[in-house]
Write a structure and sequence with these properties.
Number of helices: 5
CATH class: Alpha Beta
Order of helices and strands: HEEHEHEEEEHEHEE
CATH topology: Rossmann fold
Strand content: 25-35%
Distance between the termini: 10 Å
Bound molecules: guanosine-5'-monophosphate
Amino acid sequence: MNFLEERIVKDGIVKPGNVLKVDSFLNHQMDIALMDEIGKEFHRRFKDKPITKVLTIEASGIAIAYPVAREFGVPLVFAKKSKSINIEGEMYVAEVESFTHKNVNQVIVSKKFLSPEDHVLIIDDFLANGCALQGLISIVESAEATVEGLGIAIEKGFQDGGWRIRNLGYQLESLAIVESMDAETGAIEFREQ
Ligand code: 5GP
């Protein structure tokens, strides 16, 4: 098991409805040393790519993406969730259905912060059905920039987002892939990588 898998086994809580709670160390209270380790690991996996920007989605993606952007020495841009409709023109817009809240958000990135010269590394905390990543990919495409890869802290391998994104031909790196989890026993199994 790698450092993140060990931490998930120690402190993750399996909830009904295929939800893994990691709010004691990843997305509510945050273990900063763990975040730094995640940043170094994504840098190791993508260091041969000419990354110019890291892109994530608010809110919990920011904590993971920050140490990654620091390792690469590039700006971090985060897509904002927005309810306002009248923003086209200055903004790239995508629709993202939230796995945890079951609602649809418009996510926006200012055109000032992504351009065709950019080589983008997309980062997020979780991958479930892939809606968040597909929204971020479509924003990069709207900017005519290049998606160099995608990095996820925790992929739920029994949902089909990972399969879909890899099928599109992207390099998708997940630090932990949960193969199965059981809300009754709390048991979590990881995919061998
Ligand atoms: P997707 O768009 O891939 O269906 O879901 C990814 C998003 O939903 C992530 O940005 C994450 O915030 C949230 N998410 C999905 N599954 C889980 C989960 O099991 N636990 C937590 N804490 N968040 C999740």
